[in-house]
Design brief:
43% of the residues lie in helices and 17% in strands. It is α/β, with parallel strands linked by helices and 260 residues long. An 8-stranded mixed β-sheet has the order 1-2-4-3-5-6-7-8, sandwiched between helices.
Length: 260
Amino acid sequence: MIDTIISADGTPIVVERRGAGPVVVIVAGASNDRHGDEPLVAALTAEYSVVTYDRRGRGDSGDNLPYAVEREIEDLAAVVASLGEPVIVHGISSGGALALLAAASGVPMARLSVFEPPYRGEVEEVPEGYADEMRDLVAADRWDDAVALFMMSAVGSPAEAVAEAKATPMWAELRSFAPTLVYDARVMGDSQVPAERLASITAPTLVVNSNGSTDWLKTAAAVTAKAVPGARHVELEGEFHNVPPERLAPELGAFYRDPR
């Protein structure tokens, strides 16, 4: 079922719901819309009603300006309110960082799980001026350069990997998300775990990382879990910034059923 809800500032947000059971809202990360996590959605719909949505500026949703992280928190709050029942929230990468900020801001969640919120600053600094440079590249319609900057400065990919990505069919899709990379940069702030804000989270929380990820992502997950009162932290077998859904979905389900 696909529906459109209206956020607090009038922005239309497109929501899709599949499956039956307790509701899990998925918050997508950078360069993804509501279709970006289909394998995980498919795995979870065996037991849950899974709700995905296009974050503002992506897919079929609107993008009222000016942008502010608070508007994205309001978007998630509107999605949660539209469901009319207690929901579980699962945030992926920068979507996890957004979900954490929303929980800290009082958006009601029965459970919260996040996968590898990319707080790179816990180990090494994101290049100074990254967010401003990203903004300027997008404003100048230099979307290819914006994606390259994201991959090298935020993700940590080498220049050779960026060159290889440009030669693949997926580059056109990555490029289409370039304007919202500015938004993800704003969500990540100074790339340090916002420990003071996260200390106010009351929802039972699970933080997951892959054993195949880089040290900075593993450290970010551990520091995030320490910042959220009572949070659990698990490391699962996987690849860089990814755990296969056949491993991740059962771990999430076990936590959703019993968060202790």
